[in-house]
Amino acid sequence: MIFDRKITPSCEYCRYGNLIDDEHVICVKRGVVDSDSSCRRFRYDPLKRRPEVQPGFKPQDYSGDEFSL
């Protein structure tokens, strides 16, 4: 859950960190760190969480009859 209080701390979604790339975060407190690391100053920011990728819709898998009433 995005707004769950019981999450595993990660610099990727900490208030003090900003993503540089997929593997590194620049932190106000610690400098450049791995995105999956954390420290005692971790403060959760739910707006930095990335949602899970949803399965895509492929129109070619369906016929026009499936969309008519």
Give a short synopsis of this structure.
Helices cover 0% and strands 16% of the residues. It is mainly beta. A three-stranded antiparallel beta sheet has the order 1-2-3, with no helix packed on it.
Separation of the first and last Cα atoms = 36 Å
Gross morphology: elongated
Would you count the extended β strands for me? 3
Along the chain, the helix and strand elements come as EEE
% residues in beta strands: 15-25%
User: What is the radius of gyration?
Assistant: 19 Å
> Which structural class do the helices and strands define?
mainly beta
Side-by-side strand order of the widest sheet: 1-2-3
**Would you tell me the overall average pLDDT?**
85
Q: How would you characterize this protein structure?
A:
- The protein is mainly beta and 69 residues long.
- It is built from no helices and three strands.
- A three-stranded antiparallel sheet has the order 1-2-3, with no helix packed on it.
